[in-house]
Amino acid sequence: MNMNFKILLIGIVTSFMLTTGIFVTSDLIKAEGPEEFNFIPRIIVYQGNVFINGKKINEYETDISGNIALILRSGDIELTANVGEFAPGRYHIQLGPRLNRGTVFEVWLEDQVKADESLTYDSDSDGKWNLSVIQDLHFSDMPVATPTPTPIPPTPTPTPVVVQPSFISGEIVSGSSGEYAGAGLKLYAVINDYTSETVEIEEGIYKIVIDPKFDYYVGEEIVFILEGIKSLSTHKFVAGEFNKEVNLIFPSIPATPVPPTPTSIPPTPKPSVPEPTRTPVPAVVEKIIVEVTSTPTPTPLAAVEPKEENISDSTKDDTQSMAIKEEENGGGACGANIDPNAPVSSGHIAMLLTPLLFIGFRKISGRNH
Fold first, then answer.
1. What whole-number distance in Å separates Cα of residue 23 and Cα of residue 84?
2. How many CA atoms lie less than 13 Å away from 300 in the CB half-sphere?
3. Domain 166-250 of CATH type 3.30.1330.40
4. Highest mean pLDDT among 72-86, 246-260, 349-363
5. Contact, 89 vs 56, CB < 8 A?
6. Which member of 265, 301, 361, 366 has the lowest number of beta carbons within 10 Å of its beta carbon?
């Protein structure tokens, strides 16, 4: 308590000394210069105690945590200070200098309770601007603490888990007549916003795959639609189920669709194309050219009459044996197949003259003996 009193006393003395020095300086400046000149900035510091029903606010046990807000409001202008910021139960707030002279402020606690007094930005009755003004504020009630809403954390959206599809099949009958569904009827399944693929019925039997992918479909009812008719019976979706005994009952069975008879389409006649006029082709006359090759007539050799000479028997035998060999080998002049068109070679002539030369040789050799 003594410490708070000393702080308050020091503040009052400091304010007094500043005020006294400023006003003295102001009077000196005004004496030397023109009357409209004023060196001192027009700032007013209001301070004082805050009372609630005649009792200082710091003496109350309040549920307001921290400093209590003191709000000054004049039209669109709003200034804020905290009660107890510099001393318990006291306020301290500055007005000016950029305010219009004569501006009056209403004072509120926590923007809930209005003070009996107001604060004015203006000079005193003597026309002097006081730097510090002591003004206590009185309020009728203690403001109520505004409950701070406890932030509610957003509910986390669970990440969907991918599940296995299920395969189910069974019979389809009518609940009134017991009639089985015919082949060709179309069926599909629905789970909330999921729709399966459409399948065709095979003589009262259906087979379908349910694959909604995510786990939040597990346990939901599967509704079956047959040609626009909803089934009377349902089935719960179980991930990865393989069930062949899920029989379905419908209020009625639609008529089996009859495939339309295909209309025969006559073949498109081909346009007749006139046969082009054929140009007569003259007959080709084959010419047979026969080349006649003249056979050259062999020049006859002069016949040499042999002289009668005594030829020994051994010479005759040698001549006859040579002639027989030439006939056997086909090398004789008379027995050979000679091409009439072939030229007569020197070999042929030599062969023809060989006997004559042999005979002549024998005669010469006989004479020598």
1. 30
2. 3
3. no
4. 72-86
5. yes
6. 265
